[in-house]
Write a structure and sequence with these properties.
There is one protein chain. By secondary structure, the protein is mainly alpha-helical. The chain has one domain. It contains three helices and two strands; from the N terminus they run E-E-H-H-H. It has a two-stranded antiparallel sheet. It is elongated.
């Protein structure tokens, strides 16, 4: 049995075809952003998220060292506060990444 060669543009570049998102889903104003620009924005958002998590860990460690009797309750309050803050911050920072479609924005929120 003969195997069909994969489709190639000018015989060199492999063609990959995927279904386009619906026109209402496309964020037309973000199409001018380059891949490098979006990548740098994504890195910045991820770094800010990591900094918040490191800050929360440092706060819980400091509370445990200074107030051993209240450490469990204080750690839980810090954890809940940081979770609320992170969900608020992610909702504000993800649009800064300038995604091309509303679906990719939703996926990014789920991945963070």
């Amino acid at each position: 049995m003969l195997r069909r060669r994969s489709a190639r543009f000018r015989g060199i570049y492999p063609l990959v075809v995927t279904q386009a998102p619906p026109p209402a889903d496309i964020k037309w104003e973000n199409l001018e952003c380059t891949r490098l620009n979006r990548g740098l924005r994504t890195i910045a958002v991820n770094l800010l998220t990591v900094l918040v998590l490191v800050g929360a860990f440092a706060a819980m460690t400091a509370v445990r060292g200074s107030m051993p009797a209240l450490s469990m309750a204080a750690s839980q309050v810090i954890m809940v506060t940081m979770n609320l803050f992170l969900s608020w911050a992610i909702a504000r920072l993800v649009p800064y990444e300038r995604h091309h479609s509303a679906n990719s924005v939703g996926l990014c929120r789920l991945n963070l």
